[in-house]
Design goal:
Blueprint lengths: L5 E6 L2 E6 L10 H16 L4 E6 L3 E3 L11 H8 L6 H14 L5 E5 L2 E3 L1 H7 L3 E5 L3 E3 L13 H9 L1 H10 L3 E2 H6 L5 E3 L4 H13 L4 H12 L4 H16 L2 H11 L10
Parallel strand pairs: 2-3, 3-5, 4-6, 5-7, 6-8, 7-10
Antiparallel strand pairs: 1-2, 8-9
Helix pairs in contact: 5-6, 9-10
């Protein structure tokens, strides 16, 4: 996919999905959402073993496009009467659940602002690497709305309830360095090095064993599981990992004192 509001490039076994509507700071408009659904279809059908998400231009994603000219007026009228399914129920929630369920690690390379649903998109990644100039904004209170797209679930689990409350109630920007100190993101790099560093990380994961997809599932599901439930899931996924070709290769490489050559199977 080279055109449209989402650019999708398959670079070997790494899928690079770029939000591509820089004129509105890559805000979620109707066309971008449609293109993102198509891109995710392509990613799932591909041989990719890691997904890298970033934004074109000077922003990662500024959230929902509140002035989207492509949204049919009848939708606005129907929603005002309470007759239409909300955008959250129709697209955002299923899409963010789909990202969480992907059978591969997901990396967010955050360039510029990640606001509202755009911040939620960054938080949905397994690893988050930010440019030094990047910033994060729980923008919802600025327009009289509440956090959505899972941010009220993920954010307090990453940085604690008090800090999550502060970001959401005050709606103040958080710079990348502070986000790193708070444990909200994994790495901060110079702006010029963002894509290089993110691609190197994505390639490292893409060349890893099949168990990486199981590891991401294990940790995401741990947020909801009891201790006993998590032990049971560990046992289940350990059996699945032990049946992979990559496990056999990993053991053989260990015995032969060489670097493992994983196939993702």
């Amino acid at each position: 996919m080279r055109n449209g509001r989402i650019l999708l490039e398959l670079r070997g076994n790494v899928a690079i999905m770029t939000l591509n509507d820089p004129a509105v700071l890559n805000a979620f408009g109707v066309k971008l959402r449609e293109d993102m659904t198509e891109a995710l279809d392509a990613v799932e059908a591909s041989a990719a073993r890691c997904l890298l998400v970033t934004g074109a231009g000077r922003a990662f994603c500024s959230g929902a496009n509140l002035t989207d000219p492509d949204r049919p007026p009848r939708d606005r009228e129907a929603e005002a009467r309470g007759e239409a399914q909300s955008d959250l129920e129709a697209w955002y929630n299923p899409t963010f659940q789909r990202l969480r369920a992907l059978d591969m690690p997901v990396i967010a390379a955050v360039n510029g602002i990640a606001a509202g649903a755009g911040m939620s998109l960054a938080l949905s990644a397994d690893l988050k690497i930010a440019a030094r100039s990047a910033s994060f904004l729980q923008a919802f209170a600025r327009i009289g709305l509440v956090p959505d797209c899972g941010s009220s679930y993920v954010l307090p689990r990453l940085i604690g309830l008090s800090r999550a409350m502060e970001l959401s109630l005050l709606a103040e920007r958080l710079n990348a360095e502070t986000a790193l100190q708070w444990g909200m993101i994994n790495r901060v790099v110079d702006d010029s090095a963002l894509l290089t560093e993110a691609l190197a990380l994505a390639q490292r994961l893409a060349d890893g064993p099949r168990s990486l997809a199981l590891i991401r599932r294990l940790y995401w599901e741990s947020l909801e599981n009891s201790y006993a439930g998590q032990l049971a899931l560990e046992a289940k996924l350990q059996i699945a990992a032990g049946l992979t070709e990559d496990f056999a290769e990993g053991v053989a490489a260990f015995r032969e004192k060489r670097t493992a050559r994983f196939s993702g199977r």
